[in-house]
Design goal:
This protein is an alpha+beta fold. It is built from 2 helices and 9 strands, in the order ααβββββββββ. Strands 1, 2, 3, 4, 5, 6, 7, 8 and 9 form a 9-stranded antiparallel β-sheet that branches. The relative contact order is 0.15.
């Protein structure tokens, strides 16, 4: 009679492990997985300073790399590289891959007396290449190591 109860205990133990494993895994996974948009940038070869300090939240599709970053407000800041005035919308979208951001929407920069949309950013060694349509410009990545304060745009 001892034999029949042994398989039942084993089955009960396996069932308990199977039921508890999904409960335990999210805690373990969340402690090692990135929790902020800045972490996601760093993991893909970019400095955190590509985003201002007012990030409120983000979503990232791990399969496609499609992302959306929500800022507390739209804002303007002077970029440390080249002293260009940049305008950030409340929502930034695009596709994040290793060392490349493409299909970028929501960031514009003022140059040559007009506003230009930044459509992509590539990490190229210790340089960042900012793409504006067919044109591009390189800046040292170290200029973007720190996120800048991004005060809300004044309404006129």
């Amino acid at each position: 009679m001892a034999k029949p109860s042994h398989p039942r205990r084993l089955l009960a133990a396996l069932l308990a492990v199977a039921l508890l494993l999904p409960v335990a895994r999210p805690d373990a996974a969340s402690s090692s997985s990135p929790t902020t948009a800045y972490d996601e940038l760093r993991l893909r070869g970019f400095p955190r300073g590509l985003l201002p300090t007012n990030v409120r939240g983000y979503t990232l599709d791990a399969g496609s790399g499609d992302f959306a970053v929500d800022l507390a407000s739209s804002c303007r800041i002077v970029l440390p590289a080249g002293s260009y005035l940049a305008s950030f919308n409340r929502r930034l979208t695009g596709r994040l891959d290793d060392r490349r951001i493409s299909g970028l929407s929501g960031i514009r920069v003022r140059a040559f007396f007009r506003w230009w949309s930044i459509t992509g950013i590539r990490a190229d060694g210790d340089q960042l290449v900012f793409e504006v349509g067919a044109a591009s410009a390189k800046f040292p990545a170290r200029h973007f190591n720190a996120s800048l304060e991004c005060p809300a745009k004044a309404t006129s």
